[in-house]
Amino acid sequence: MSVEQYMQDLGRAARAASRQVAAASTAQRNAALLATCAALDESRAELAAANAEDLARGRERGLEAALLDRLELTPATIDAMLTGLRQVAELADPVGSISDVNTMPSGIRVGRMRVPLGVIGIIYESRPNVTVEAASLCLKSGNATILRGGSEALASNAAIAACITRGLESAGLPAAAVQVVATADRAAVGALITMPEFVDVIVPRGGKGLIERISRDARVPVIKHLDGVCHVYIDAGADHAMALEIAVNAKTQRYGTCNTMETLLVAAAEADGLLPQLAAAFAGKGVELRGCERSRELLPAITAATEQDWHEEYLAPVLALRVVADLDAAIGHINHYGSQHTDSIVTRDHGNAMRFLREVDSSSVMVNASTRFADGFEYGLGAEIGISTDKLHARGPVGLEGLTSRKYVVFGEGQVRR
Prior knowledge:
It contains 14 helices and 16 strands. It is of the alpha/beta class. Strand 9 (about 290), helix 12 and strand 10 form a beta-alpha-beta unit. Helix 10 (about 240-250) crosses helix 11 (about 270-285). The longest helix is centred in the N-terminal third of the chain and has 21 residues, at about 5-25.
């Protein structure tokens, strides 16, 4: 069988299964999640053996240590997968909820109901635990899903998929509700993203190259973000202690995440007093500063920033630093160089805070808080499938509601239009 035919078969089965999952009760979907949890717990030895196979193959292929680390399924990783499944089972089910009901002059009542998207294709790299995270969120929100993990995790994902199948079948749901692509052939990705008759949306989770390719070639809508060029702007009159704590946390709490600050903007009025403190704090964390001309006048030891630095997502202990004239200049810089992910202002001025919220064109905009809070769990979504910087359908962290859409529903009592 060709890869194209194999993917068509997966898509056809997923489409049929999506209707059954959408019609299933919340209790039935939760039962499948908890049964999957039990199956994974019972299959720890099989999971470990499959993962050891992937790790051995990865070492033979010369995978970097960081990739091998993400690939490994430790007992703690499996415990976290089980906890995640239980947490998703406890989340409120958005499917079927009706809101915004209004009575029209004709007497009809018009509202909006949350419904699943249908079939979600998810393409990801390295971490096999994403298989469980993605499957659980799609299932809870009433969707079927086709999961295409990285070739380096093929055996691990197959072992996890077997547990998910057991969980689905024990709850009376079709096994095709969650299907893991069983081939490492890259043509499978090309097929998955060009099957609009079977797949309703694609969610890529991985490096910029993967996401660019999928965005360029997909014939199916894509929920994604490309870069996390996040900013913190310290406003004139800001509390220095607060500004220092937020800036250091936004950059150094974790370096490799998409919501980590990559550029720090400081109002000119605060530069003389604040930049030496910031430089000392970042030096203590081992962060390299790359500064504009004005910042280098105050901190002559730091590296000169280039034009590329304002565009850069470092994902490393490197930070671009720029002194800006005022709020207008800060907003202009962010809207020009930012990636519409997450940006924050530190200020005492309510008017400036509200202007920042209105005028910065990003999926998450914050006042007096670290950019590291841009996360589904921290936002109370319970979990997230990813973060979207698009403007249609879903924006920001995408949780259960982001995996649904709304349709109009109308209640009448025999009305006809005159």
